[in-house]
Each structure stands twice: as C-alpha cells, then as structure tokens.
Amino acid sequence: MPDPRLSRRHVFGYAGAAGLGGAAGVVAGRATAGSDDDDAAERVGGRTYPAHGDHQSGILTPTPAVGELVAFDLLPSVDRTALGRLMRVWSGDVAALAAGRPVPGDAAPDLAQAGVSLSVLIGLGPRVFDLPGLAAARPTGFQEIPPMAHDRLEDRWSGGDLLAWVSADDATSVAHAVRRLTTDAAPFARPRWTQRGSWRPVDADGNPVTGRNLFGQLDGSANPSGETLTATVFSTDGWLAGGTQLVVRRIEMNLATWDELTRDRQERVIGRALDTGAPLTGTAEHDDVDLTAAVDGVPVIAADAHARVAHPSHNSGRRMLRRGLNYTHEEWIDGSWTSSAGLIFTAFQASIADQFIPVQRMLDQGDALNEWTTAIGSAVFVIPPGFAEGAWLAQGLLGD
Fold first, then answer.
1. Which residue of the set 54, 219, 364, 367 is catalytic?
2. CA distance linking residue 20 with residue 342, whole number of Å
3. 334 noted as active-site residue
C-alpha cells in the first residue's frame, strides 16, 4: 500500500503521455508525500523525507532540482552474505543522510543537512540474482530490455549490478551523499557509470509546475495516481512486496535538427501544444487526449504523433510511473570538444516484461520522435521495498 503519510491530495504527477523517442515515457513524474499540512504537501523544495516506510523515498516523492544515478559492479568476491553486509551499511547511510546527520566516518560532516529534499533510492541489477542462492528470488517480469531498432546503446551508460540514485534541492547535497555511499561501497563494489541531471519543478514564485524537457515540451501530464498508481508500480509478491522494478534509459536528443522545425511541425510530432502542453484536441494541459478527433477525415493527432503512440489506450492500458532529468554532457574526443544533451528517463512498474517492453516496442516501431531521439544507455534494477527502523534494505531477500 502507498505510504500512509501521503497528503489528502494523494499523488499527482506530471509526465509525458508515455515516451520520448527510444523511451517508453518522457518523464518528470511528481508526487506529494510527507506532511498533512497543505502548504508543506504542495512544496517541492526544502523538504525532509523519512528514511523508513513501506516504499523507498525517491519513488513517490517529488522530483527535486538535482539528481545523480550511480551504477556499481559487484567485486568478484561478493556473495549473498557480503551483499547483505553492504545493504546494512547503506541502510544506515540512508537513514543518516535523510535526517541530515553525518554518516559514520564522514570526512565532511558539515555537509550533512536536513531540509534539502534529499532522497536515496537503492536498486539491484540482474546479476544479483545470479549469485548462489538467489536465482529463485528473481522477480517475475524482471529482465533486460531487448534490442530496439532505434537504440545505439553504449556500455558506458548501460548495465550495473547495483544502483544508488540520490536526489536533492542542490548539487552539493547530492555530491556529498554520493561520495559517502561510494566510499562505503568500496569493499563490495566499484562504480560503473554516473549520470547527473537536473529539473525545474517550480515557477519563478516557487509554485509547483510541470517541468520542460530540452525540446521545450511540458513533460508531462498523465502519471497514474491513487489506486491505479499502486497497481501500476508496486509488487505484491514475496520479498519484493512494496518494491518495484525500474528502467533507466539515457535518451540523446538531436537538438540542432529539432530546432530547425517550425513550431507547428514540432507540435504535430508531439501531438500537444508546446506552450500549454494541451493535446491538440483540447485547450488545457490535463485535458484527455481525443484520438478519434478528425478534420475533413484527417486525424487531429497524427497516426505517428507521440501522444497517440504512447497513449495507454494504444497500448492495452499499460502505464508506468515516469520521472526524468535533463542532462548535458561534454567530453574531449580526438582533439576537440563534443557535446550531447537529452533526458535521463526512468520508469517504475510492477513488471518490466509486461509494461515497459511492450510499450517500448510500440514506440520503436511508430513514434515520430524517433527521428530526433536515440537511446544510448539502458539499465534495469529491482527496487526493494522500504525498511522499518531496526531493519535494512532487501532484508527479505538477503537476510538469514
């Protein structure tokens, strides 16, 4: 069940109809959690999230301004028992960081701070379930994403045995938490890749708004909520009850060629107005998408428009909880600087096989946005349920 501390306004998110090019969902999901006070429930920044609960923070909590995802590879010597030790250590770290306390042995204790909307989400990659004694515990539907026609995946952004996803209001708090988690993981795992991104979840007055991706698109308006959210995202099976499955896709955007399009063409590709986010069949952002609307026999929302291809009714009702971060990346290659930009797309669901993969195949075959987007990274993780005080992450999987 969802965290009982969810406000009476429940969960409300902003997400694209389902996907951006090579991803089954352009993200930026946002959900309120925490205080019963309406002002606190509406506030995106300046929060302190509890470390303990039915679900890990970072799933239902609002998308803050800064996020960093770090994937790790387990060292060859790590077995089930050793992984359990790391989960105990990380659980203590999560509890301290969430409360704004230094973790044991923190070399920079003054950087620990409450009220920065910090959350730490821990995940387990596919190879964890290849460890002796864990094969039977692999969750139903948890699998790697099969190759897609428009993918151009790079090893440096893909895979991983463990995930630590840290989010907060500021980059300093994120960097500090990542440093502590990485240091404590060193006897067990080494970093494989790091992806950093940002989001703008509020307007100039600090009011929550739908953020925009780097195409200028409001991103977005249709995340599940209430009972639909629970059924969409959370497992009810065995040790994973209250946990979920996560897809991470790094989506590179061709901004140069996108900028060459007329605004009208951009809106027809998406199926939504750029200024308001309203579907081309409506007037407001949260209006339902009318896939039957036509003018002189021509559909208002084109057959390959993102809003149509990604719509749940076009995908047997499949949904996911989607969150995302904009990224820019520069590196020195062959004597010159090269740059790229795009979206770190993430989707939570109860079953990757039954939810993400079928939608992704539909998008791969027919989404107009494929011309301007390419998936260059892909990873999947099981997200264990939350833990109570005195317990630890993935205890139901790794405990004696």
1. 219
2. 10
3. no
